[in-house]
Specification:
This protein has about 170 residues and is α/β, with parallel strands linked by helices. It has two domains: about 1-140, Rossmann fold (3-Layer(aba) Sandwich); about 140-170. It contains six helices and six strands; from the N terminus they run ββαβααβαβαβα. A six-stranded mixed β-sheet has the order 1-4-3-2-5-6. Helix 5 (about 125-130) links the parallel strand 5 (about 110) and strand 6. The longest helix is centred in the last third of the chain and has 31 residues, at about 140-170. The chain is elongated and about 70 Å long. Pfam families: CTP_transf_like. Keywords: Lipid biosynthesis, Lipid metabolism, Nucleotidyltransferase, Phospholipid biosynthesis, Phospholipid metabolism, Transferase. One of its GO terms (biological process) is phosphatidylethanolamine biosynthetic process.
């Protein structure tokens, strides 16, 4: 376990706002070639709780399920640790997220985008935690808003095109 230096020591034991128990959130992934999307995913996950733990998979697990990573696991641990919304990094996190993993780190739920994460044999890596109701989709609301904007744009473009056709016919 690697603690992030962005927060004071003991943050994991501090109560949440208004004295309630802190909500602990789990995210995991490869985090190879970390970019804005990864940081934004972790920012959104952190906003869903009080303490964010991020599991980073090993080179061996990534190679087995997805193909070889570009960065080594040690480099990826450091990259994720440097993201300010991450409170703690779990090195060598299992590729399949289980209730046992969430319980081991006292996490209330795990967060993942709506992209499907599969094992090499086609199994959903979040199947168990989804069935138990301890999985949250962080991108669902964002994607619904984005889709609504895209549909509105397409409808406006269709109306504009129809007006143009009508205008051309009037000539």
């Amino acid at each position: 376990m690697i603690r992030n230096g962005h927060r004071a020591t003991g943050a994991e034991d501090r109560p949440g706002p208004e004295g309630r128990r802190a909500v602990r959130v789990w995210c995991d992934g490869c985090y190879d070639m970390v970019h804005y999307g990864h940081s934004n995913q972790l920012r959104q996950a952190r906003a869903m709780g009080d303490y964010l733990i991020v599991g980073v998979h090993t080179d061996e697990e990534i190679s087995k399920h997805k193909g070889p990573p570009v960065f080594t696991q040690e480099e990826r641990y450091k990259m994720v640790q440097a993201i300010k919304w991450v409170d703690e990094v779990v090195a060598a996190a299992p590729y399949i997220t289980t209730l046992q993993t969430l319980d081991k780190y006292n996490c209330d739920f795990c967060v993942h985008g709506n992209d499907v994460s599969l094992t090499v044999d086609g199994r959903d890596t979040y199947e168990e935690v989804k069935r138990a109701g301890r999985h949250r989709l962080e991108y669902e609301a964002r994607n619904q808003k984005k889709e609504a904007k895209e549909l509105a744009f397409l409808e406006a473009a269709r109306r504009q095109e129809a007006r143009q056709v009508e205008s051309d016919c009037d000539l």
